[in-house]
Every structure is written in structure tokens, then in C-alpha cells.
């Protein structure tokens, strides 16, 4: 994978300058200024929450609560980190809370049977690797993406966090460490295990290569 | 390098995060190891699937929903703040105003009370009257002593000047009360009323009637109303000055000394009482106590009577009553005791008794 962090960091830094100004305006009581922050970060936060939770509507609710919580907590934002990083941490906490409640409710997870893809394509994960174009033709792409999301959901919460933040959101290790309040080495090791576990889930779902 | 070690470096290899040496080692190993090559392919595919996940879009009007929530929250927050602090914003100024009002009322009440307290303050001590007298010489027109409770007419000027205290202090008080107080404050003086004074009572009453109520013939019908009551007090001082009378009558015990009057009135009355003495002497001695004892002994030896003897701020005051005939001998005796200075020269009385006020002063 090519360098993911540097361009995004640069983008974040550019956005951050404007974010700080908007944050200061919000602190001065200009509530409407917060809409600009929502406009800038809503999509990224929704995607992050969606990949964390796996449910679009719930992710939207979580992000909405996160924005509201961020607005209430603007006074505690010191500016030490990027606003997006700070906001991402709030979304993460909201997502964790939701997942904890979900786990408590013991809500039934919608799991696709493991042989769904095998019976669908009649091949294996090796087939996907070797002939992705054929797979795409045979399998609905949305179903594939749903399977990927399902595999992500099967990850441990901690692994899923670093995986989503790094491989989907594209945050740098430093940013992930700031969001999760973890050292960079821990983030790297946790990410390695997450990727390995996700690969195993893919293999289980799409068939082990032979 | 083992396959496990190569697998651990695969993520860094894909992210181009290895040193050139490690990168060459991994590449050499991958070229020879199908297992690790397969693992790399699976890892690439995993990341590729993650990267290919499409981004979801926010639902319609998502921003508006959030901002509506925020506006609602801001409104409720300000409402909560207003609910929390509204009472304070009102209460603090309100309490401050109430406090200021209470303070102002208290001050006003205190001022009024203080004025009343001043008016109802007890009489100054007699010794203070003596002290004041010592600094002010007696006037040549000494008032005639008046019997207890008798009042003389006064000029309108003096009525106005003395209108302040006495009327407010005892507007309804019977003059007997003032007499009682006078007696209680001067018990020794009250025992020997002078027959001369009694003989003058009728004349005093007639004078009051003639001046104050010329159209009435009722004797000594002094009204008890406050405004008129105080006039009686003023008469004691004003009549001699106005009429220039010097009766020369000896002062009787406790005459004209009111029980509770204003300081000015009581001062006048006291002065009148003291001035009732025929002679006013100052005796300068080195030993006041010895001189006072010697004077008292001498008074006893000539069958006189010590009306009053007290010490005020280091000086002695002796008021004696002796026969008029022994007054020259008393003067001679006093000259033997110390240096005598006569305060005033007045003719000797025709009565048998004479009152002499001797001020014994320490001579440095």
C-alpha cells in the first residue's frame, strides 16, 4: 500500500487551520459556524462510524450524537490535536457506547452463512484473487462489500478500530495513537493482528486458497 | 530469515516502510518461498477489499438535522443557564437594594433615636456645674432664690431661647417630680428650708400671675403643658437679669434644682443655686485637704453649718452657712489658712444667716 498518511495529514493540517477559526467562532457563541464543521466532517465521520458499527442508520445517529457532544465540549478542545482527530475520538467513543449497548441487548447479528459465497460462486478465495473480474461479474458487488463489512464486524473492537482508522480512514499511526491514546508501536502491532484476523475471516468466508 | 519473520514484515513491505536492506531480504525470500508469496497475495487482497469499500453518503438533510439539534441544545442550555442564574441576576441587585434601604432606614431611625437620647440624657453631674462655674465668674445680678416649685415670669426672649429641651423632656411631668429629684439629688440641702424663702413664696406667685397672666388673678396656676412648663425653669435665671434684682436672700437647700432638665437649664439652675451664697471666695492653699479640714473645724467652732463640701478636679468646694456676724471673722480665719481672693463684693445680708462658697485651690 502506498503512503496513506502524508497526503491526508497535509489535508488535515490545511483543514485544521480553518477548523480552529470556526471553533473559535463557535466558542464566541456563533452557533451557525458549527454547521461548517458538520459539513466538512460529516461524511468522513459517518463512514468511520459505519465501518465501526456496520449499520448505516445507527452510524448516522452515532455521528449525530457525536457532533452534538462535540459542540457541547468545544470549550474543552485545547487545539493540541487536529479538530478532525478530536472529533474522530468523540465518534469512536459514541460508537463504543453503541456497540456496548448492542452487546448488552444481545441483539442478534445478521450473519451470512459461510457457504453463501461458496455456493454462490462455486469457487474459492483463490479464485477471487486470480479472477476478480469474473467474481465481480458473478457476485453482486454490494454483497461482497457486505461480506467484507461482516468480516470487519467479526473483529475484536480494538482491532477493528485500528483497522478502520488505518486501512479505511487512512489516518497516520500518530493520529491513530492520538485518537486511541496508544503508542505508535502498539498501534502497529494491533493493526498487524487485525489484518491477519481479517484475512482469516475472509478465508473462512470466501474459501481457503489451495 | 524465517517465514514467520517475513510475514511480520509484509505490512511494512506493502507500505514501503522497510529499510532497503530489509526490503531486499523480504523480496529475495518471497521469490523463493511460495507460502510467503501466497500470504503476501492474501494480504494485498485484504487491503484491496478494504480500500475498495465504498464511502457512504450522509443522509439527506443530515447537516440540518444536526444543526437543529444543536440549536435546540443551545436554546435549552441558555434556558438552563437562565434558569440557574436568573434568580441570581435578580436577587443580587434586589438584595443589594433591600440592604441599602434597610441601612438607610436604620440610619434615619438611629438619628432620630440619638436625638431623643440626647434630649433624655441624664442631668450633668453637679460637680461639672461647679467646674463650669469656676471658669465663669458670677454675674453681678444674682437671681433671687426661689422656693421649690415656684416659678417666676420670664421675658419672651428667654422663653424662646430656652424652648428647646425642658418642654420636650417633661411635657406632662408634674413639678413635684422635679422637686423630688432635686431633693433626692441634694438630700442634705433639703432639710433646712429657710423661713425667709417661705415668706417670699406669696410674692413670687403674685409676680408670676402678674407677668404671665396679667388678666388672671388665680395664683400659681402654672400650666403643665410642655411649652409653658419650661418657662418656669427659665424664670429662675431670667428674672434677675431682666429686672436687675439682687435680693440677697440666702439660698435654701435644693432650691430651684430640677430633677431632669436640659443641660442648659440645669446648668442655670445649678449656677443659681451656687450663686445663692453671699460671698464667693477663692482660697489658695498648698494642702487642700488640710485646709478643708481646718475650715470645717472652724465652721463647727463658730456653730456654722457645712452645707456642702466636695472635691472637684483637685480643688475643694465648701459651701457653709454661718451667722452674718461671724463672716468677717471667717474671712480672717481663711486668710490665716491661705491666700484669700474675693470673687465678688456684695453687701452683707440683713438676715442672720449667710451662705459662703469657698473654693479651695491648690497653690503651686
Structure description:
The complex is a heterodimer of chains A (210) and B (364). Chain A is mainly alpha-helical and 210 residues long. Chain A has two domains: 1-107, Orthogonal Bundle (Rna Polymerase Sigma Factor, Chain: A), CATH 1.10.1740.10; 114-210, Orthogonal Bundle (Arc Repressor Mutant, subunit A). Chain A is 76% helix and 0% strand. Chain A contains eleven helices and no strands. Chain A has helices at 5-27, 34-53, 56-72, 83-105, 115-121, 125-130, 132-138, 141-154, 157-168, 173-180, 184-206. In chain A, helix 2 (34-53) crosses helix 4. The longest helix of chain A has 23 residues, at 5-27. The model of chain A is unreliable at 1-15 and 111-124 (pLDDT under 50). Chain B is 58% helix and 10% strand. Chain B has 14 helices and five strands. A five-stranded mixed beta sheet of chain B has the order 2-3-5-1-4, with helices on both faces. In chain B, a hairpin with a 2-residue loop joins strand 2 (305-312) and strand 3 (315-323). The longest helix of chain B is centred in the first third of the chain and has 58 residues, at 62-119. Chain B is rod-shaped and about 160 Å long. Chain A binds chain B through residues 1-4, 31-32, 34-35, 38-39, 42-43, 46-47, 50-51, 56, 59-60, 64, 67-68, 71-72, 125, 128-129, 144-145, 148-149, 152, 163, 167-168, 188, 191-192, 195, 198-199, 202-203, 209, and chain B through 8, 11, 14-16, 38, 41-43, 45-47, 49-59, 62-63, 65-67, 69-71, 73-74, 77.
Order of helices and strands of chain B: HHHHHHHHHHHHEHEEHEE
Strand content of chain B: 5-15%
**Overall outline of chain B:** rod-shaped
Strand order of the largest sheet of chain B: 2-3-5-1-4
Number of domains of chain A: 2
Kindly report the average pLDDT value of chain A: 78
> What kind of oligomer do you see?
heterodimer
* Separation, N- and C-terminal Cα atoms of chain B: 125 Å
The percentage helix of chain A is over 70%
| Count of β-strands of chain B | 5
The radius of gyration over CA of chain A amounts to 19 Å
- Number of spatially distinct domains of chain B: 4
Query: CATH superfamily name of the largest domain in chain A?
Result: RNA polymerase sigma factor, region 2, helix turn helix motif
Distance between the termini of chain A: 25 Å
| Mean pLDDT over all positions of chain B | 65
Instruction: Let me know the largest β-sheet of chain B.
Output: 5 strands, mixed
Bin the helical content of chain B. 55-70%
Q: What's the helix count of chain A?
A: 11
Give a short account of the largest sheet of chain A. none
Q: Please state the structural category of chain A.
A: mainly alpha
Kindly name the structural category of chain B: alpha+beta
Amino acid at each position: 500500500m502506498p503512503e496513506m498518511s502524508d497526503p491526508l495529514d497535509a489535508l488535515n493540517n490545511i483543514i485544521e487551520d480553518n477548523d480552529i477559526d470556526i471553533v473559535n467562532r463557535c466558542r464566541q457563541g456563533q452557533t451557525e459556524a458549527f454547521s461548517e464543521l458538520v459539513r466538512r466532517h460529516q461524511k468522513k465521520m459517518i463512514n468511520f462510524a459505519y465501518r465501526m458499527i456496520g449499520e448505516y442508520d445507527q452510524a448516522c445517529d452515532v455521528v449525530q450524537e457525536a457532533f452534538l457532544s462535540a459542540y457541547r465540549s468545544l470549550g474543552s478542545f485545547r487545539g493540541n490535536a487536529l479538530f478532525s482527530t478530536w472529533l474522530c475520538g468523540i465518534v469512536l467513543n459514541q460508537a463504543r457506547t453503541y456497540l456496548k449497548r448492542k452487546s448488552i441487548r444481545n441483539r442478534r447479528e445478521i450473519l451470512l452463512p459461510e457457504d453463501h459465497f461458496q455456493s454462490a460462486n462455486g469457487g474459492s478465495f483463490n479464485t477471487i484473487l486470480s479472477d476478480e473480474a469474473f467474481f465481480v461479474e458473478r457476485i453482486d458487488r454490494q454483497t461482497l462489500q457486505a461480506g467484507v463489512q461482516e468480516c470487519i464486524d467479526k473483529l475484536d473492537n480494538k482491532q477493528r478500530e485500528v483497522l478502520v482508522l488505518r486501512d479505511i480512514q487512512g489516518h497516520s499511526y500518530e493520529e491513530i495513537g492520538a485518537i486511541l491514546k496508544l503508542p505508535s508501536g502498539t498501534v502497529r502491532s494491533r493493526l498487524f493482528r487485525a489484518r491477519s484476523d481479517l484475512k482469516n475471516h475472509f478465508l473462512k468466508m470466501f474459501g481457503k486458497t489451495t | 530469515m524465517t517465514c514467520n519473520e517475513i510475514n511480520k514484515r509484509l505490512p511494512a513491505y506493502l507500505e514501503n516502510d522497510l529499510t532497503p536492506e530489509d526490503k531486499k531480504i523480504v523480496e529475495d525470500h518471497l521469490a523463493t518461498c511460495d507460502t510467503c508469496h501466497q500470504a503476501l497475495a492474501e494480504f494485498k487482497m485484504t487491503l484491496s477489499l478494504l480500500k475498495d469499500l465504498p464511502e457512504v453518503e450522509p443522509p439527506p438533510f443530515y447537516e440540518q438535522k444536526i444543526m437543529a439539534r444543536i440549536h435546540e441544545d443551545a436554546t435549552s442550555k441558555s434556558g438552563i443557564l437562565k434558569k440557574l442564574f436568573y434568580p441570581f441576576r435578580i436577587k443580587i441587585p434586589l438584595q443589594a437594594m433591600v440592604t441599602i434601604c434597610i441601612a438607610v432606614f436604620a440610619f434615619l431611625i438611629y438619628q432620630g433615636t440619638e436625638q431623643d437620647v440626647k434630649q433624655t440624657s441624664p442631668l450633668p453631674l453637679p460637680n461639672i456645674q461647679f467646674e463650669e462655674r469656676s471658669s465663669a465668674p458670677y454675674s453681678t445680678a444674682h437671681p433671687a432664690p426661689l422656693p421649690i416649685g415656684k416659678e417666676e415670669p420670664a421675658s419672651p426672649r428667654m422663653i424662646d431661647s430656652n424652648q428647646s429641651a425642658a418642654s420636650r423632656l417633661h411635657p406632662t411631668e408634674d413639678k413635684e417630680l422635679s422637686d423630688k429629684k432635686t431633693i433626692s439629688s441634694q438630700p442634705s440641702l433639703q432639710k433646712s428650708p429657710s423661713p425667709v424663702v417661705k415668706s417670699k413664696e406669696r410674692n413670687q406667685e403674685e409676680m408670676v400671675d402678674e407677668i404671665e397672666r396679667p388678666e388672671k388673678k388665680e395664683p400659681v396656676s402654672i400650666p403643665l403643658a410642655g411649652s409653658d412648663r419650661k418657662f418656669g425653669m427659665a424664670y429662675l435665671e431670667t428674672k434677675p437679669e431682666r429686672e436687675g434684682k439682687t435680693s440677697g436672700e440666702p439660698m435654701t437647700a435644693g432650691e430651684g434644682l430640677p430633677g431632669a432638665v436640659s443641660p442648659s437649664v440645669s446648668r442655670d439652675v445649678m449656677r443659681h443655686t451656687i450663686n445663692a451664697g453671699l460671698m464667693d471666695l477663692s482660697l489658695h492653699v498648698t494642702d487642700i485637704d488640710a485646709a478643708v479640714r481646718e475650715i470645717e473645724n472652724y465652721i463647727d467652732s463658730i456653730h456654722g453649718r457645712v452645707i456642702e463640701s466636695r472635691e472637684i478636679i483637685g480643688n475643694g468646694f465648701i459651701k457653709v452657712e454661718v451667722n452674718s456676724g461671724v463672716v468677717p471673722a471667717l474671712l480672717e480665719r481663711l486668710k490665716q489658712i491661705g491666700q484669700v481672693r474675693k470673687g465678688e463684693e456684695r453687701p452683707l445680708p440683713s438676715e442672720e444667716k449667710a451662705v459662703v462658697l469657698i473654693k479651695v485651690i491648690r497653690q503651686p
